[in-house]
Amino acid sequence: QLQLVESGGGLVQPGGSLRLSCQASGFTLRDYAIGWFRQAPGKEREDISCINNSGSKTAYRTSVKGRFTISRDNAKNTVYLQMNSLKPEDTAIYYCAADIYYSDAVCGGDDVVPYWGKGTLVTVSS
User: Fold this and answer.
1) N or C: which end of the chain has fewer CB within 10 A?
2) Max Cα–Cα distance, the chain, nearest Å
3) β-pair partners for 115
4) Are strands 46-51 and 120-124 parallel, antiparallel or unpaired?
């Protein structure tokens, strides 16, 4: 069974940091581009960042540039999202998704992207 599993979410104070992980089971993540997304209560899902299969190309949403860093360790079949200087408006469920192509689809969270995790909750609050 092909699955993506996110982990690393939790409650953090404003200004704090978290590192999210996206792990694959049933397939080799190094063959796939990965996107990170989030959805806050009552809001639409928004794209955050994406990375190609080798890690040589990345992209970020303007609001997280300089605070979030996407990376991958293909030997561990894992993609990470390091989140620093967290703000209350970063509170959301965070999802990762995988596609064989590094494209607007996986970076934008298009529904054609075949593999999605179930999400991990990040709450930024004092």
Assistant:
1) N
2) 40
3) 98
4) unpaired
